[in-house]
Task: structure prediction
Amino acid sequence: MNKRIATMSIFVENRDSITSINKILMDFSDIIISRMGIPHREAGISVIVLILETNNDKIGSLSGKIGNLNGVSVKTATKK
Result:
């Protein structure tokens, strides 16, 4: 399958999910080119932005696993 460049934004409202997020990201570390995390304490949210290089199946798998966590939402964009 063809590799694609993608960005993934992860919005964390439930801090209890952070350990699970980090474990999942470690499992997918081979496809992560860059990772940036920004806590916004006043808003009670953290944002993690990833740049990925992989195929659509792995992008979907990562997005699904993280998006299923409590208090976490994910948005993904891929380069055509």
User: Anything to note?
Assistant: Helices lie at 18-27, 56-67. The two ends are 14 Å apart (CA to CA).
